[in-house]
Write a structure and sequence with these properties.
heterodimer, A: 425 residues, Aldehyde Dehydrogenase, Chain A, domain 1, Aldehyde Dehydrogenase, Chain A, domain 2, 2 domains, 7-stranded mixed β-sheet, 5-stranded parallel β-sheet, 43% helix, globular, B: 378 residues, alpha/beta, Luciferase, domain 3, Rossmann fold, 5-stranded mixed β-sheet, 34% helix
Chain lengths: 425, 378
């Protein structure tokens, strides 16, 4: 699946807008000829890039209010469970991304519910103005797999800034960006063709080269290695490497929201709390979490574990049980360790409770992981929150929030030292 | 001390001769009683295991059935001394090969007696069902070369106690001694004296490739046989087990039924064998196992089940899962071992599907272990 304006018939055919009346001349056309095989991405991209550059002039002339209105209509369509494209996404994404249907639905809801006129207006006010005459005219986006909405904010920011976006998805996960592009064409046609999206393998050097050379600014998601490799080819690229998050609990209980944070995206996201540091007996916290997890897992279920993942998980949980405590069930695991240590790292969907060191000691413990700490969920009195936030700031933290909020970042969240919208205007 | 348990296990094994009704399966009550006794001993005397069982909520007094004795994943043998005695007093310590990344797993044996009681009868039943004493050639390291390998220990035993005059290891510091192997196999072909060739799957594959390269097929005399082992561990293999057996049968001009696969691991005292050779010679075995010639048969003192990778619950017969063993020859370590091998169990026999591949990392979460390993190296 792909959406390449200027290349593919479907992307160039005016689409009926459910809310705004069908385009009449569609009905006057002759029956469609049999489809031709798609043009290879590497050959198609330059044409699509040229189309988007031309269309970008119109998009830039559109008022910010109109852009916000268009984006919000698109977001609302994704929140509408009866919307055809959302339904199509729900059919395809679970298998494509290896996530359960409720998890995909949850991910779509969380990603689009933060896109509102208010949030976009505030973002624009904060970073959008003034615009530069020599600002980017076309943006490129290289997405990573599985957490399929992680690259959504820069794409939204791009359209908000009046800059069309060309999106590269992993070859085996092309659906979401293609449907996103299509949803803009359907629900915000007044913005013109503003997103092109296709999936290709990183081995397709020609296609990646066409993207890197054809756009003015690039946002790339992936491992540190793949981002570094891209940055060598494209200096100035905004990279979002792999990150981790933690939780700090100074209190008596584990909020359900924190368990949901750990289960969301099957524990594979950069906002997953990989370690939960608790001020108290870690086993008591782990036991409490184990009593709640079977309920919360119903909201965020996992697909059955593969044999390999099951073997790794059971091995890790057993090793934890030899020194601390562990329990598990379908789709969840909980463990406590008697001392604060980072490796071996817990497998996905396993909450690992560790004793909470003092702020400076926690900083010291995490320092070998470099500046890759994405976010910290902190529960506790304000002064303790502040102490931990200050101590961990040098490790790259871009967000301190409450438990249950980790996996619900606001649309204007700037992370990895990138001011996303500001870099587009 | 566990001497009385070794005695009990040994007695039960000795009462399980092929002619006896207990050869294929022990009465559930007998297995259950002995496994419960071993579990109690291991729970009482192996403190880490006791803690683990407490965490799992299973104690000797609360044990509902033998298959609820908490299994220990093989990886844990790398980080915990799982024994009921001071490991410094071990008579034998077997170590994993370390072919998979990381430290080596250790299996400490206070006395090798139950291991030996287990090893002999089952090897004889499936490698020497005709009672022949054969010149034995081994394409694997001897015990002198690799004193920590349970496989070398077993093969050394086969050479020393079951091999006819002239039995030997064909192995150098650099690996299999292929040239000498070719000479020995040719000599066997010429002399008409049947041999027993034992080796790792990879070494046998290399031997076969060498034979193929030089168009040097090495027909072996009638009654010769081959045992291949370790097919799913260690070095890369280009052939799967079935292909390897077919090619070996061709290269050695022997029946595929003379090529027996063995399944064993450092953490288990018992081994499983494909019953092909025994089936060819023994009608009751044929009747009993039917078409199961390529399933691994384990002795009645070692029960195996497939468990759900997610819940670790025992699966119904015929469903694929991770293989877990309850092996009564593991007297002074832990009798319940969970592997990362995938397969299904029918009538107590294992259809092995291979080693579960490691989980593929997904998403944008940091690979913490890799970063820490890199930081440690720097």
């Amino acid at each position: 699946m792909r959406w390449l304006p200027g290349v593919d018939d479907e992307a160039d055919t005016p689409l009926p807008r459910p809310d705004h009346g069908a385009v009449d001349h569609l009905h006057d056309r002759d029956p469609a000829p049999p489809p031709l095989p798609p043009v290879p991405v590497a050959l198609a991209l330059p044409a699509s890039i040229a189309t988007l550059r031309r269309a970008g002039e119109g998009l830039r002339r559109t008022s910010i209010e109109a852009r916000i209105a268009g984006i919000c209509r698109v977001a609302r369509s994704w929140l509408d469970h009866d919307d055809e494209l959302r339904q199509q996404a729900m059919e395809l994404l679970p298998e494509e991304c290896g996530l359960s249907e409720p998890m995909v639905a949850w991910g779509l809801d969380r990603a689009f519910e933060v896109i509102t006129a208010e949030s976009l207006g505030a973002w624009w006010e904060d970073e959008g103005a003034p615009t530069r005459d020599d600002g980017p005219r076309l943006s490129g986006h290289i997405l990573a797999g599985n957490v399929f909405v992680s690259g959504l904010p820069p794409v939204v920011a791009s359209v908000l800034a009046g800059v069309p976006a060309v999106v590269k998805a992993p070859a085996d996960q092309p659906t979401f960006p293609a449907l996103l592009a299509k949803s803009f064409a359907i629900h915000a046609p007044e913005l013109g063709p503003c997103i092109a999206a296709a999936g290709w393998s990183r081995a397709d050097e020609r296609a990646t080269e066409a993207l890197l050379e054809g756009v003015d600014v690039v946002f790339a998601f992936g491992s540190d290695e793949s981002v570094a490799a891209l940055r060598e080819r494209r200096p100035g690229l905004h990279g979002f490497g792999h990150r981790y998050s933690i939780a700090v609990v100074v209190g008596d209980e584990v909020p359900d929201g924190l368990i949901a944070d750990a289960l969301a995206w099957d524990g594979a996201g950069c906002l997953t709390p990989r370690y939960v540091f608790v001020d108290g007996d870690p086993t008591a916290f782990a036991r409490a979490a184990a009593t709640r997890a079977p309920t919360i897992v119903n909201e965020l279920p996992a697909l059955p574990l593969s044999a390999g993942a099951g073997a790794e998980r059971s091995s890790w949980l057993a090793q934890a049980a030899f020194s601390g405590w562990s329990a598990h069930g379908p789709g969840w695991g909980v463990a406590s360790l008697p001392e604060a240590r980072l490796n071996p790292a817990p497998p996905p969907r396993v909450m690992c409770f560790l004793p909470l060191p003092e702020p400076a000691a926690l900083h010291q413990l995490l320092r070998p992981l470099g500046s890759r700490l994405q976010a910290v969920a902190v529960l506790g009195p304000e002064e303790r929150r502040a102490a931990y936030a200050d101590a961990l700031a040098p490790l790259g933290v871009s967000r301190v929030c409450g438990p249950g909020e980790l996996q619900r970042p606001p649309i204007d969240w700037n992370h990895d030292d990138v001011r996303i919208l500001a870099s587009l205007v | 001390m566990s001497d009385h348990l070794h005695e009990r296990v040994g007695r039960m094994i000795r009462h399980s001769k092929p002619a006896s009704g207990r050869f294929w399966n022990w009465p559930d009550a007998a297995f259950s009683m002995l496994s419960r006794a071993l579990f109690m001993h291991q729970y009482d005397h192996c403190a880490p295991y006791r803690h683990y069982c407490d965490v799992r909520g299973v104690t000797p007094t609360s044990l509902p059935s033998w298959d609820r004795i908490p299994t220990v994943p093989t990886d844990v043998f790398k980080s915990v001394d799982l024994c009921t005695f001071d490991p410094n007093h071990a008579a034998l310590t077997f170590m994993t090969s370390g072919t998979t990344v990381g430290t080596r797993g250790k299996h400490h044996l206070r006395r090798p007696v139950s291991y030996m009681e287990s090893l002999g009868p089952w090897f004889d039943a499936f490698m020497l069902p005709d009672g022949l004493r054969l010149r034995t050639l081994v394409l694997a390291p001897s015990r002198a070369v690799d004193p920590t390998s349970s496989l070398s220990y077993m093969l050394q035993w086969a050479v020393d106690h079951r091999g006819a005059t002239g039995s030997r290891f064909l192995w150098t510091e650099d690996g299999p001694d292929l040239e000498q192997a070719v000479i020995e196999l040719r000599r066997a072909g010429t002399s008409g004296e049947p041999i027993m060739l034992l080796g790792t799957a990879r070494a046998l594959e290399v031997l076969f490739e060498l034979a193929l390269d030089g168009d040097r097929l090495m027909p072996l005399p009638r009654d010769s046989r081959v045992m291949e082992t370790g097919g799913f561990k260690g070095a890369e293999q280009s052939m799967d087990g079935g292909e390897l057996r077919e090619e070996l049968a061709r290269a050695f001009a022997i029946k595929p039924g003379a090529i027996v696969s063995e399944y064993g691991m450092t953490e288990l005292g018992s081994q499983g064998y494909h019953p092909v050779l025994r089936m060819a010679l023994d009608k009751p075995t044929r009747r009993r196992l039917g078409a199961a010639s390529r399933r691994f048969v384990f002795p009645p003192w070692c029960r195996v089940r497939a468990v759900d990778p997610d819940t670790l619950e025992v699966l119904p017969e015929g469903e694929e899962g991770l293989l877990a063993f309850w092996d009564l020859s593991n007297v002074d370590s832990v009798l319940a071992v969970q592997t990362a091998d995938v397969g299904l169990v029918r009538d107590g026999c294992v259809e092995l599907h291979g080693r579960a591949p490691g989980a593929t990392p997904r998403g944008c979460s940091l690979a913490v272990d890799e970063i820490l390993a890199g930081a440690a190296k720097a």
